[in-house]
C-alpha cells in the first residue's frame, strides 16, 4: 500500500513537471524580450542554479576526457539554438504551433539514431514520421508567410532537439546527466554571449526589462529548467523510463490547453489546426506504445535464449 501511494505521489509530481514544461511555450508570449535574450537568461540562470546545487551536494564537476568536453560544447550549442528557434517560432505565431513542431522531434530521431548510434533503421518509426508530416500539412494548409516562417523555425527547433537528445543518450552512458546538463547550459551561455559581443549588444541594456519579465525568467530558468530536470531524474528511478517518456508526450496537450485559457489562442486557430494537432499527438503516443511492445518482446526473447 505504501509503495502504491509513493508511486501515486510521483505520478502527480511527474505531471506537474510536464505542466511546467508545457508552460515554457506560454512564457514565450508572456516574456516581452527577443527569443535570443530569453534563452541567454534561461541558460545563465539554469547554469548558476545547477552549479550551486552540485557544489552544495558535493558532486564532482570534473571531466577527464577532452573529447567528451568538445562533444558537450557542441551539443550545448545545439541546445541554445534549439531554444532560440523554439521561442522565435512562438513569437512569430502561437505557443500551440511552437510546441506541436517540437513534437516532430520523433521523426528526426528515426533517421539520426541509425547514423549517430549505429542503431538499426526502423521502418515503423519512418511510417509514423510520415503521419506526422500529414499532421503538419493539416496545420499549415492555410498559413500566411509569417506563419510559414514560424513553422520553419519550429521544425528547425525539432531537428536540433533530436540532435541533442540522441547525443545526450550516447554521453549518458559515460557521465551523469546532471554534469551533461551543467556543461551544456554553460556552453550555450558562452555561445550566446559571444553573439551579443560580436553584435555589440553585450551591455547593461540586456537587463532593461520589467519586473514581470524578470520573475518569469527566474521561473523559466529555475523551475522549468533546473528543478524540473533534477526532479525528473528521480522520477525516472521510481516510475521507469517508459512511463516518463509516454507521459511527456502530453506536453503539447498541456501547452494547447494553457494557450486557450491564458492566451485565448482558440480565437486564432481553426479546425484544421486541431485536426493536425490530434494526428501529431496521437502518433507520438502510438510510437511510445509500439516501443514498449517491442521492448517487452526483446526481454522475453532474451529470457528464452
What does this structure look like?
The protein is built from twelve helices and no strands. 82% of the residues lie in helices and 0% in strands. It has helices spanning 2-30, 35-56, 66-92, 95-102, 105-116, 123-140, 145-171, 177-199, 211-239, 241-248, 251-263, 271-304. The model has no long low-confidence stretch (mean pLDDT 85). It has one domain (2-304). With 305 residues, the chain is mostly helical. It is globular and about 65 Å long.
Q: Topology, pairings included?
A:
Elements: H1 2-30, H2 35-56, H3 66-92, H4 95-102, H5 105-116, H6 123-140, H7 145-171, H8 177-199, H9 211-239, H10 241-248, H11 251-263, H12 271-304
Structural class: mainly alpha
Indicate the radius of gyration in whole angstroms.
20 Å
N- to C-terminal distance: 36 Å
Characterize the overall form: globular
User: Which segments are poorly predicted (pLDDT under 50) over 5 or more consecutive residues?
Assistant: none
Number of helices: 12
> Would you count the extended β strands for me?
0
The tally of structural domains comes to 1
Portion in beta strands: under 5%
List keywords for this structure.
globular
Short account of what is shown:
The chain is mostly helical and about 300 residues long. About 80% of the residues lie in helices and about 0% in strands.
Amino acid at each position: 500500500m505504501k509503495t502504491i501511494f509513493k508511486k501515486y505521489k510521483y505520478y502527480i509530481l511527474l505531471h506537474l513537471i510536464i505542466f511546467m514544461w508545457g508552460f515554457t511555450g506560454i512564457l514565450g508570449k508572456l516574456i516581452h524580450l527577443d527569443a535570443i535574450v530569453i534563452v541567454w537568461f534561461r541558460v545563465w540562470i539554469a547554469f548558476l542554479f545547477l552549479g550551486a546545487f552540485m557544489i552544495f551536494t558535493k558532486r564532482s564537476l570534473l571531466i577527464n576526457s577532452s573529447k567528451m568536453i568538445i562533444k558537450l560544447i557542441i551539443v550545448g550549442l545545439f541546445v541554445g539554438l534549439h531554444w532560440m528557434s523554439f521561442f522565435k517560432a512562438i513569437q512569430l505565431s502561437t505557443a500551440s504551433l511552437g510546441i506541436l513542431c517540437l513534437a516532430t522531434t520523433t521523426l528526426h530521431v528515426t533517421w539520426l539514431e541509425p547514423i549517430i548510434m549505429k542503431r538499426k533503421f526502423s521502418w515503423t518509426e519512418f511510417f509514423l514520421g510520415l503521419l506526422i508530416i500529414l499532421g503538419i500539412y493539416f496545420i499549415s494548409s492555410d498559413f500566411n508567410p509569417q506563419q510559414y516562417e514560424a513553422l520553419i523555425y519550429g521544425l528547425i527547433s525539432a531537428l536540433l532537439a533530436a540532435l541533442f537528445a540522441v547525443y545526450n543518450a550516447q554521453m549518458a552512458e559515460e557521465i551523469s546527466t546532471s554534469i551533461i546538463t551543467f556543461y551544456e547550459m554553460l556552453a550555450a551561455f558562452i555561445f550566446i554571449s559571444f553573439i551579443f559581443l560580436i553584435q555589440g549588444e553585450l551591455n547593461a541594456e540586456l537587463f532593461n526589462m520589467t519586473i514581470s519579465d524578470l520573475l518569469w525568467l527566474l521561473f523559466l530558468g529555475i523551475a522549468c529548467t533546473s528543478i524540473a530536470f533534477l526532479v525528473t531524474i528521480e522520477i525516472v528511478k521510481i516510475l521507469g523510463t517508459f512511463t516518463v517518456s509516454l507521459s511527456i508526450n502530453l506536453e503539447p496537450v498541456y501547452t494547447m490547453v494553457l494557450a486557450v485559457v491564458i492566451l485565448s489562442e482558440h480565437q486564432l486557430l481553426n479546425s484544421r489546426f486541431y485536426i493536425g494537432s490530434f494526428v501529431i499527438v496521437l502518433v507520438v503516443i502510438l510510437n511510445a506504445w509500439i516501443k514498449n511492445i517491442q521492448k517487452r518482446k526483446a526481454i522475453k526473447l532474451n529470457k528464452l535464449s
